């Protein structure tokens, strides 16, 4: 009995997954959904800051990749790239230099 009490959550989870696969999958999906909704509804300030920082880092990485890709393009490729952008989008894009 003591061995069962000392079983870790991951070990118990894997054993239940083997013994009751369909019920375990449904319960696991429900638990993860509940956890996601709870974290979205009641975020911790630390988590909010980390998410924003991660999003900014990802956008900066994408901008660097696009910039490097455009620098590597020949003038003909760059013209073709600019021509592929729809007219309505070209007017919406603005270059801001700091």
Explain the overall architecture:
The protein has 98 residues and is mainly α. It folds into two domains: 1-42, no CATH class; 45-92. The longest helix has 28 residues, at 45-72. It is built from six helices and no strands. The chain is elongated, with a radius of gyration of 25 Å. The chain has helices at 2-5, 9-19, 21-41, 45-72, 75-84, 87-92.
Mean pLDDT: 83
- Rg over alpha carbons: 25 Å
Helix tally equals: 6
- Return the string of H and E elements: HHHHHH
- Beta-strand content estimate: under 5%
Q: Give me the count of strands.
A: 0
Morphology call? elongated
Largest sheet: none
List segments where confidence is low: pLDDT < 50 over at least 5 consecutive residues.
none
**What is the count of structural domains?**
2
> What structural class do you assign from the helix and strand content?
mainly alpha
Q: Give the % helix.
A: over 70%
Terminal residue distance: 67 Å
């Amino acid at each position: 009995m003591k061995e069962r009490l000392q079983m870790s959550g991951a070990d118990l989870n894997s054993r239940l997954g083997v013994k009751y696969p369909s019920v375990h999958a449904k319960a696991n999906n429900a638990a993860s959904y509940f956890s996601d909704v709870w974290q979205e509804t009641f975020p911790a300030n630390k988590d909010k800051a980390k998410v924003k920082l991660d999003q900014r880092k990802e956008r900066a990485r994408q901008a660097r990749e696009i910039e490097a890709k455009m620098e590597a393009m020949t003038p003909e490729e760059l013209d073709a790239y600019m021509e592929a952008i729809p007219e309505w989008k070209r007017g919406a894009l603005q270059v801001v230099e700091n």
